[in-house]
Amino acid sequence: MANSRSGDSMTDRIVRVLDTFTTERTMQTATEIAERTGLPASTAHRIVGDLVTAGLLERDEDHRIRLGMHLWELALRGSSALRLRQAALPHMEHVQSLIREHTQLAVLEQEEALFLERLSHPDAGANITRIAGRLPVHASSSGLVLLAHADPSIRARVLDGPLRAVARETVTDATTLRAMLASIRRRGYVIAPGSIEAVSTGVAVPVRDRGEVVAALSVVLPRDAATEPAVTALMDAAKGIEADLRAMR
Amino acid sequence: MANSRSGDSMTDRIVRVLDTFTTERTMQTATEIAERTGLPASTAHRIVGDLVTAGLLERDEDHRIRLGMHLWELALRGSSALRLRQAALPHMEHVQSLIREHTQLAVLEQEEALFLERLSHPDAGANITRIAGRLPVHASSSGLVLLAHADPSIRARVLDGPLRAVARETVTDATTLRAMLASIRRRGYVIAPGSIEAVSTGVAVPVRDRGEVVAALSVVLPRDAATEPAVTALMDAAKGIEADLRAMR
Fold first, then answer.
1. Which burial class, exposed, middle or buried, applies to A220 when counting CB atoms under 10 A from its CB (0-12, 13-18, 19+)?
2. Model pLDDT for residues A81-126, shown as the tens digit of each residue
3. Domain IclR-ED, which positions (chains A, B) (predicted)?
């Protein structure tokens, strides 16, 4: 993919422009985008202009740039995220009606837990996850389930790397984590109190498609809530999602 | 955005590659993609390779290409689609619990109704819309609401253009449509029996943000179902979404 002149392809540069948008930074000027990409200003401005023309970015009356509806449309057409989410949503709604906190669906993406969907009760407790947001695999309950079932090479890379403490109780010792992952594979679920926020407990189970774990289904409970109803609801929902994924083939 | 050598920018070519994916065609070989874009095979193959490296496309064991999870992630980060959909989903679920058919959210995009979300009851009747799918604005109930409140120049362009009959009962006469659009603006909803499929009736209402109509909320009912409960449920839900959009500012 290297480009003889600059060492990166045009595709990379376009992705660098799109990557300057985050769940917290949804509006930027073209100049801010140029600075954040590190690309020459003229290159960045030209790419922004092309992306606006193509509908992947939108420019408002104040010349601020945001992600465009056509990017959303392209991304959802026939994506595996949409298929998973379509299979999962009715079952997530059922979990939500029973547990009435936060119900979430995550996949493993570049060694992090990427959240595809989140349903939240109006009175639910704290929860920092966002749709299309990410959390470290060694800290979030969804991430731990995904890591437990990941390719061994990915698991080794994560456990050998720096393990950041997201909260005071995040487990950052590789040996302890290895034992937790083995226990997740054996028991079929994880309960992770305080690993993301002191006030909450994550509970997660794996979701399989064609025998492989493709997602983690989780709830975020207040720290002192009973976890048994959540484990049961999540395991039932995972079975339902797996049946629907089979029916979609 | 013109490129001196080829008349289209690299961004255009990348969008042409991504645009070969549809809700019905989610897997393609690189050769099929090249043929469908009309680009030289070597150019198309190089772009596909770059997009796979960047995570915007994914290649499976059988060398088939699909849309990548990173494209989905980029698209949803801080997009206006996500904000609208987040505000709307709880209210759509409430409509769904009352009406138990199909509940949908659409926006106007390039003179078509683009569907951002759809909830469906397991026993609901026929419905051809899909998430990230489109329908003509002059035929679908959502489209009619969006067209009624669109910029007059867009309305003129649609009404002057060819008006395709999606079903036998689709209204394709510009004068009749103009009267329907005026009635939608006056009454605040539309009931469109048979305009998309003979067996169903669409009911839609506008959703406003900062005084502008930004979306249409709709249900698809079996042709003979009562429409009054749907109109009431949709109007209440639109009010709720509008309040939540205000609170999100």
1. buried
2. 878 988 998 899 889 889 999 999 999 988 999 999 888 877 787 7
3. 70-249
Beta strand B112-120 pairing with B102-109: antiparallel
pLDDT tens digits, one per residue of A134-151: 899 999 999 999 999 999
Set of chain B residues whose Cβ sits within 8 Å of the Cβ of A70:
15, 109-110
pLDDT at A188: 97
Percent of chain B exceeding pLDDT 90 equals 66
How far is the alpha carbon of B99 from chain A, nearest alpha carbon, in Å? 16
pLDDT at B3 over 70: no
CA B77/CA B69 separation, integer angstroms = 12
Q: Backbone phi, then psi, for B16, in 5-degree steps? A: -60, -40
Amino acid making up residue B26: T
**Angstrom distance (rounded) from CA B245 to CA B249:** 7
Question: Rounded to an integer, what is the distance from CA A201 to the centroid of its chain?
Answer: 18
Nearest Cα to A16, choosing from A46, A47, A58?
Answer: A47
CB nearest to A132's CB, from B19, B73, B80: B73
Q: Do A106 and A142 touch, CB atoms closer than 8 A?
A: yes
The pLDDT mean for chain A works out to 90
Give the dihedral of Cα atoms A206, A209, A212, A216; nearest 10 deg.
-20
- How close does chain A come to B119, measured CA to CA in Å? 9
- Partner-chain contact A78 B66, CB within 8 Å: yes
Sorted by where each starts, the structural domains of chain B and their CATH numbers stand as: 10-75 (1.10.10.10), 80-247 (3.30.450.40)
Contact A11 B132 (CB under 8 A): no
Q: Is the pLDDT of residue B10 over 90?
A: no
Which of B36, B46, B50 to mutate to test binding with chain A, by most A CBs within 10 Å of its CB?
A: B50
Residues of chain B positioned with their CB less than 8 A from the CB of A47: 11
**In sequence order, which residues have a C-beta less than 8 Å from that of residue B215 and are 6 or more positions away?**
B84, B88, B105, B106, B107, B116, B146, B206, B207, B241
Judging contacts by C-beta atoms under 8 Å, the chain B residues touching residue A1 are 49-50, 53
Q: Residue B93: name the closest of B223, B244, B211, B246 by CA.
A: B244
pLDDT, tens only, A15-64: 899 999 987 788 999 999 999 999 999 999 999 999 999 889 999 888 89
Confidence check: pLDDT of B110 > 80: yes
**Contact present, B20 and A74 (Cβ < 8 Å):** no
Using a CB-CB cut-off of 8 Å, the residues of chain A touching B119 are: 89
Full 3-state SS string of B1-32: CCCCCCCCCHHHHHHHHHHCCCCCCCCECHHH
Chain B residues in contact with A68 (beta carbon < 8 A): 79
3-class state of residue B140 by DSSP:
coil
Residue reference for tokens 């915007």: B56
